# Entry
Amino acid sequence: MSIDTPATRQVRAALEKEGLAGRLTVLDETARSAEDAAAALGVAVQAIVKTLIFEFTASDGPFKGQVFPIAALISGDRQCDTKAMSKIMEMEGKVSRPDAQRVKDITGYSIGGVSPIALNEDVIVLIDTALSRSETVWAAAGHTHYVFGVSFAELQRLTGGRVTGEISK
# Structure
């Protein structure tokens, strides 16, 4: 079975470009949460990539008032530490969670299927070092029943993200 939507085609094209199209997996069960995805794949929840979208609004300096979209790629067994964002961004600011429509506007994906790859260029990607604990990590591929598995190094290469140990707790 293949899932064919604009979002899944976007992920498939990004993986094909890197020679990784064979990594796509269709799940019988939903992968709306890290726990659901882990159960459906038969893997530890720490191997699931939670792609969380935030907006960081700078409150000082030359970027005061500017809003930066952030995709925080967090290990499934961890929580995002939004208080660390100012330190990671190297400026003071406020972090907010956009609503479902804004997430789709920022990423092109609907909540539950937000993929960490093929994001808009202006999205800052932060990768949780805790994901490196798993040989293979699994991320959403544009749909609640579609995922892909890659190594931590491949995830970093595919996203161009900044690896940080400060983004989760």
